[in-house]
Amino acid sequence: MYLNMMAGPEASARISNNDLYEILRDEILSLQLVPGTLLSENAVCKRFNISRTPVRGVFERLRTDAFLEVIPKKGTFVTLIDLDMVEQIIYMRVQVELGAMTQIAARPSPQLLEKLARNLEQQKLQLELGIADHQFYQTDSKFHELCMVAVGKYKLWQIIQHMDVHYSRYRRMDYKATRQFDVLYKEHLELYEALRRGDAEPLRALLTAHLYGGILRIGGRLTTDYAGYFADTARSIDEILRDVKKTVRQAAAN
């Protein structure tokens, strides 16, 4: 896919290299620039009314950070999503966040519960008002961040959040493809209720279903509507889907 960048409001003012990097990075993460998009230096120069030198530097930085890749004799492309990596990051999140939530359930903090309740109120309000996916992305992430911060694991949470080349794009794809924000709200509410009761027993099943849910919601569309978004990996998409279904079933049975 080739991106035909039209000159926009940005072109009217001089832009710094860092601002240009952040704009393009955000457009990649939010899927405005979908995986596999051919990105032209000339188009970016024209869009922002700047010379090739800063654009070339920003492209190199995006390439170093794995947002872009150069294919010889073809051009510079937005990198494809590694779904195998996504699944393994989810696996890590389940283990890490289960430990945090189990610790919280052992001694629920009224202060934390109040913050989580306010977050849930915000989610509900967003649902009632109609929601943009980037807004729910932030509110959803904040719910989990509050739990990690409560057990002193903010730095670990930041590490997870910076695994955004593949994982954040997958999450945004889930939001755009399914828009099942009501399901996500319900799952957050169930996690909150278990924490409020001090009941750690259902946490593994709830958290596993919640964090792996996006892959199951998109399901077969991963190999049809979104097949071009994904890189070839050791496990095929069908194999990953099968493994995720098995993981969720096992968590529910235990």
Task: Give the structure's gist in a few sentences.
The protein has helices spanning 17-29, 41-48, 52-64, 83-106, 110-129, 133-150, 154-161, 167-178, 181-197, 203-218, 237-253; strands at 68-71, 75-78. The chain is mainly alpha-helical and 254 residues long. It has a two-stranded antiparallel sheet with strand order 1-2.
Descriptive keywords:
single chain; 254 residues; mainly alpha; two-stranded antiparallel ribbon; 11 helices; disordered N terminus
Describe this structure in words.
- This protein has helices at 17-29, 41-48, 52-64, 83-106, 110-129, 133-150, 154-161, 167-178, 181-197, 203-218, 237-253, and strands at residues 68-71, 75-78.
- It is mainly alpha-helical and 254 residues long.
- A two-stranded antiparallel sheet has the order 1-2.
- A hairpin with a 3-residue loop joins strand 1 and strand 2 (75-78).
- The chain starts with 16 loop residues before the first helix and ends with a helix.
SSE inventory with pairings:
Elements: H1 17-29, H2 41-48, H3 52-64, E1 68-71, E2 75-78, H4 83-106, H5 110-129, H6 133-150, H7 154-161, H8 167-178, H9 181-197, H10 203-218, H11 237-253
Antiparallel strand pairs: 1-2
Helix pairs in contact: 1-3, 2-3, 4-6, 4-9, 4-10, 5-6, 5-9, 8-10, 9-10, 10-11
